[in-house]
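Researcher: Next entry in the queue.
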Amino acid sequence: MFQASYFLLSVGVLLQVLIVVNAELITPSIWPQPVEFQTSTGLTNVGLFEYTSKNGAVNTLEQAYKRYNAMIFQHNTESSDTTPVEVIVDDNSEAYPQLDTDESYSLTIPSPENSGEPIKIEAKTVYGALYGLESLSQLVMYDYDKQRYIISATPIRISDSPRYKHRGMLLDTARHFQPIPFIQRVVDSLSYSKYNVLHWHVVDTQSFPFESKTYPKLWKGAYTKPERYSQADIKDLVEYGRLRGVKVMIEFDMPGHASSWCKGYPEVCPSETCTEPLDPSSNATFPLIRSLLGECNGANDGNTEALFPYQFIHLGGDEVDYKCWENDAEIQQWEKEQGFSGSEDTYKYFVEQTASIAREQNRLPVQWVEVFEHFGSTLSKDIVIHVWKEKTTLDEVLSAGYKALLSNQDDWYLDHETTSWQTMYKNEPTAGLSKSSDPSLILGGESCMWAENIDPSDLFNTVWPRAAAVGEVLWSPKIDDSVDMDKVENRLQTFRCLLTQRGISAAPVNNHRTRMAPPNPGSCYYQR
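Model: Structure for this entry, 528 residues:
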């Protein structure tokens, strides 16, 4: 018996299967790792959870209770026993979460001797309570021998809160269209790893699938009519995310990456044959941008609800090629009239204009790091710089006093198929910063799923489980060189299996390339 259990332990089978070694229960784990996680040696039987909310259950929690019970208790048992779960929330507001929304929670699971006492989740907000429910769900196991549900290592006490406020994943739906049900499943999977932002890169050179009511011909730039997002779809998706604690940050990348805008409104582009960057000299360009962003931000009509209530809006600004501007006589004449010395001034004018529109509409502008590389400290300090290039740029951004998001491509780009989860996990945001940098200006970061080579057929096994490594870096306390990577791998193996049990097609943990098939028959908990 000992040899068999030791073998299972050595190959990373933990947590979802109850293992006994020297009569001691293996300590369960949660992904991402909580700040404080106290366990003991008890074994508590549990039945279907019966939730009560101290201040009255609001819709967000009521829906979460049903959702989690369905995920946790997948096996029919003869027992009709139930287990009380008391959820105590200080502020029951269901207002849309923002950057500073309190996401902390505590979770207390009593010992077997006190099994009549309720499991308690305490949080400041309903969104913190959602994370408590997720942690609780990862602790429940099914004992197949006795056909019962159990929580091992009780009593358990967890006190938890995220390290960073913005924990996002970029999803590109412009290079390949992702239907709404697939994006909803992405939102589901993000919530399991305590991500709280879906960065929706909805439009790019190749397609414009987004519906605008004020400029209805924009989505003529979609690949086909079925590959579009109506505003009704968008509203439903944003609310779907809110119910799971996941905010949606929309991105309209401009002035580059914008050829698809020209299909509906060619007057905003330099010419039919040279379509990007967008034409800043046209009288049509900035009114269109203002109105489009106004639809997203609820700024066009005082009675119109914002499509995207999150306080951040991403304005792109990356990879701007000046050739179309430099080869267009009208743009060249306009630059002279403006007193500009060339396309560099035009680029700065464009990014400042779009950021100004966002501010007027009560949004904080986020722009890719190129705007800082070109214009440095001359930019307004309220722009959030999204660092995607070399990690060294982050130090320069922080030293200049700008808030930042980190997505350095060598470590956190999910479309880089050979980047391992270990590389992603060891990408400490504050590593290598100089004394002149203020690490508190790092608002968080994002893993990025660019979609040149993904569509609904391979999305999830490209993203997961590697994105979970980024999720833990952004949630859990700072990871240093003393971390036991074997133990981390064991927990990630378990989390990957949890994802598959919940219908997320996560690839094996240690593939040489992401989304490779398992190499041979074997357990989910040991696929190499």
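Model: The chain has two domains: 33-160, 166-483.
Researcher: Noted, moving on.
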